[in-house]
Amino acid sequence: MKFTDKTKTRLIVNLEDVAHNYNYGKKLAKGAKVAAVLKADGYGNGAVAIAHRLEKEGCDFFAVSNIDEALELRDAGVKGIILILGYVFDEYLESAVENDISLSVDTSAHLKKIIEKACGRPVKIHIKADTGMNRTGYYAKGGDLSDDLILSANLIKENANVICEGIFTHLATADVEGGEDFSRLQYERLVNTTNKLRALGINPQIVHLSNSAGLAKFSSFGLDAVRMGVSLYYGYCTDDANFRHTTSFKTKVVNVHEMKKGEGLSYGQKFVAPEDMTIAVIGAGFADGLCRSLSYGKGSVLINGEKFPIIGLICMDMAMIDTLGKKINVGDDVTIFGTDHGKTITVEEIAKDAGRTPYEIICGISKRVPRIYK
Ligand SMILES: Cc1ncc(COP(=O)(O)O)c(C=O)c1O
User: Fold this and answer.
1) Residue 24 is a catalytic residue
2) Cα 37 to ligand 1 centre (Å)
């Protein structure tokens, strides 16, 4: 299916800007490899399109959440490392092995299943260390290696087809002010764990830690790779203006009408017109990813380079704005985030207005919204 500029509601992704951000990330990483984290369909931007564009920049390391996301990239011809950061259940391990997908391993029980399903075929693993996030990973919060990690190290040694491609952990406080000491502690724990594994004869090829916020604050920590997710699309957690906003969320005006003073608007009728006013209806609603918490004046949109408040309750496919006495016509372009006539609403601004994180906003643009690439 081919989408055109006539499409009403659309997410426009500037792939040149994504490539720019990736290359800027590489510069910040100072020689470390940059893995593109393309979970959740590349944070809503379209994982395959992003991967293909980044491959042209030399990217050969991608990370995703699950087997479906991994196979989508492999089936689309992506050649480099595709690492699944999440857990893969037994029934999918075989297709991971067949498609040369790298697996995160966090228990010896999981590793045993991987070995069983690999049946002697080469299988690449990354050891996931829990250095403090307390989510998943081998216990790696100081002291000796955990018994389970030692058991896993022995399994790796006994099974020559198991390739220890990497070891990693995830920063819990890189995007929190004052979280630097904890990030450094997590780094030390990862390095200690890696050194102890090396002493046992296990040599993970790629040690990786930083996410976007870690990259902005600590570069790669001097390790082999960083994992860059959200900052492929804008400079998360940094005011470094070298990062570009890559993505715009746009729709069109679908109706313009008058409302008399005292009339209620939309579901619940909580917004009551304080005076006679002209309302414009826009063609995107919460089912497209326009957060309902932007209702009742919390959020604004841009039309013809000017800001207009969203009033009343956002509906599933539409939302209403106050035209503020300006001339607005059906078919006028509406920018929910992005730039219009030199004015910009950033994803951070809309996230703040909605009481959400920028991640939730960009991952929340729904499937029915076509992605258009520039
Ligand atoms: C394990 C892991 N690494 C890296 C990332 C990328 O993080 P960011 O988008 O903040 O760069 C994520 C994202 O949640 C993750 O779960």
Assistant:
1) no
2) 7
CA angle at 227 for the pair 225 and 232, rounded to the nearest 5°: 125
Convert the pLDDT of each residue in 126-141 to its tens digit. Answer: 999 999 999 999 999 9
Q: What is the pLDDT of residue 91?
A: 96
Q: Is residue 2 part of a domain?
A: no
Residue 146, pLDDT score: 98
pLDDT of residue 3: 55
CATH code of the domain covering residue 270: 2.40.37.10
Do 168 and 282 lie in a common domain?
A: no
Residues 206 and 315 in one domain: no
Q: Which residue, by CA, sits nearest to atom 2 of ligand 1?
A: 170
Range of the domain at 95: 15-232
Q: Which residues of the chain have pLDDT under 70?
A: 1-7
Sequence-ordered strand ranges (E) for the chain: 10-13, 33-37, 61-64, 81-84, 102-105, 123-130, 138-139, 162-168, 206-208, 225-228, 247-259, 264-265, 271-272, 277-282, 300-303, 306-311, 319-322, 333-340, 343-345, 371-373
**Active-site annotation holder among 79, 261, 267, 374:** 267
Residue at a domain's end among 170, 199, 232: 232
Q: How far is ligand 1, taken at its centre, from the CA of residue 217, in Å? A: 15
Q: What is the pLDDT of residue 2?
A: 59
Point out the domain boundary residue: 182, 207, 232.
232
User: How far is it, in rounded angstroms, from Cα 69 to Cα 48?
Assistant: 10
Of 26, 33, 39, 128, the catalytic one is 39
Q: Write the residue with the smallest CA distance to atom 14 of ligand 1.
A: 229
Q: Does residue 237 sit within a domain?
A: no
* Residues 39-68: tens digit of each pLDDT: 999 999 999 999 999 999 999 999 999 999
212 CB within 6 A, ligand 1 = yes
pLDDT at 236 (0 to 100): 87
